[in-house]
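This week, work through this protein record:
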Amino acid sequence: MKDYHRHIIRCKTPIKQALAQLDKLAADAILFVVDEDEKLKGSLTDGDVRRGFLKGLSLEDMVDQFIQPNPKFIQKGAYTIQEVINYREKQLRIIPVLCKEGRIVNVINFRYLKSYLPIDAVLMAGGRGQRLRPLTDNVPKPLLKVGDKPIIEHNIDRLISYGIDDFWISVRYLGEQLEEYFGDGSAKYVNMKYIWEDEPLGTLGAVSKIKDFQHEYVLVSNSDLLTNLDYEDFFLDFISKDAAISVVSIPYSVNIPYAVLETEGNSIKSFKEKPTYTYYSNGGIYLIKKEVLKYIPKDSFYNTTDLMELLIDKGLKVNSYPLRGYWLDIGKPEDFKKAQEDINQIKF
């Protein structure tokens, strides 16, 4: 994400200064005017300035006299994906994001973002990476580089491109290196927090430690994956199915080199000549309604599959989202080698 502060200007600023700021923004020339409490008061574009001059205002006047009041905005934690899609379809490219007190906490720009999903993201990064030793003897697996950056950074950057800006990283083995590498996320203009596992907590147990999610939906993902998953389509499918949890599933085809007989007792009823069967495996990426996270036992070893079984038993919907794009689990040396080959060939 870009530094949103470049779009902000205070009330009682001379319009001449605002013009210089608009000029620096070039193709993204829009300013959001805030008061002394940082609350949004209006927006300002080149067109607003021209209209002000035509009404007799001058370079000595303040921005307050030129602004458009009541600009469109998104409220953090209280918007829907349909609002975002509507803004995007109406060609509203640059939109401020406000906290509930009315202060600007972000500015989204659809020249750089594919979407602005109402999701918190949790990345599981505490594993030892035993099968990738000796590469992981001194570096945690998520920080192993694929191409020009670490595996986990490919995942974070793709999530950021879909507008996700609240992250938690679950760490244990050499977790200090991950904290040092990403810090608080400010270098990427996102919020980054860390969950320390004193003991291994499985693929979901660490989520029980998080009490301050910003949205009603949570994405949980393994951090050692390489994928070009369309997260907006995944989210839209999740919402349309009204699922408690949705799982990215990876198709796996099995080719049978012989005719397969369908029988009843010893009687052959039909047969299929060299059929191909497609099965779906767990892709390690999940969307979960925040309300069902209460079922995760606190500080206990607990896998996402445990939650899936519990939700099925309760009669809640557990959805499969078949992936139509690229996916690679970097668990073994041959996977790591393949990732180095694929990174320059696949569009991420």
Notes: The chain has a mean pLDDT of 89. The radius of gyration is 25 Å. The chain has two domains: 4-77+99-108, 120-342.
